[in-house]
Amino acid sequence: MGGPGNPPEGTPEGGPGGGEDEYRSVVFDESFIRAARLQEFSAQERIDDHAPAVRRRPPLRRGLSRQALVLVLLIAVAFGTAVYMGVRHPYQDPPGPEPVEAARMTVIPLAPPEKVPGSADTEALFARSPAAQYRIGAEGVPLPATRRTAHFSDSQVVNALSIAKDYIVRSSLYPEVILGEQVRPVRVLIDPDQLDQFDRSFDHPAADGRHAPTGWLVRFDPGSVELADRRIRVQGTLAAAETDSATLEVTADHTFVYALRPADSGDGARASLFTVRRELHFRFDHDDLRMSQTQLIVSSVQAGPLSCADDAANRLRPLLAGQTAKAGGPAGTDPYATGDAMALCGSLAESAQPRV
Q: How far apart are CA 211 and CA 52, in angstroms?
């Protein structure tokens, strides 16, 4: 038996809640009709052509939507731009590092006009000399105030100055280096492209302006002298400047004063002072800064008291307390030999010696 509001057979077709509700959500809009694969002929077409009631429509030719076309176009433009920028981009690559030059070096011995003054008291020698106010050791090689350049940051400038200072300290203040026992502490700081020149200088030293060991470092003849005081006095300056977008140069100018005495003479022997002025020009590219290495471009050395007749290119043989310079000038220079440097010698001023 049906409910109070419904007939026994259920809701009549077409009435509220009937079968029509099942298809109420289906909307046969124009796009749906156009997409249908079957099309019904009109009554007139069926009378005229005796055709079947329906016919199969050819498939619709679907093209890309406007949004899809725009997206494809944008991708193509982006890809083309990337290819163009990769081949011809407006930013020029930074210039590569310059070829490493061979170091140029000059070593000038300074001969004393009289006997070399000396004393067993090294403190008194220093106090009576122009080096009285010099600092001791690496303290005499302070880093200057720095600031960035157009193409190098402040940290890179400080790094270049620090490497140059390290080179100066190792090549002028390490006892094992200046007494001719080792060269490795200095060699590890040399740019790899200069190592051949460095090694040849020590294997085959020559006064040719290119292969003088004393141009690379301070080196005494260990068979003739020893340090009477390991507190070496130093004074000088460091300065950095950019030469181009890929290169920094550091200029160093330092004077070193050593207290020396004859080798194996004992603590009571008289000591004398020996002065070396070194003007060094260093060059750094980005690889050198990253590897903590440097290129030595120019080395100019003045040292005394020395005898002009001795070869100062390989080792320095200082004149000690009470000694005088040998008669005669420097070694002869052959003006017809194109590869040799000119032999030079100077006179050590009396004001450069301790007062006795």
A: 109
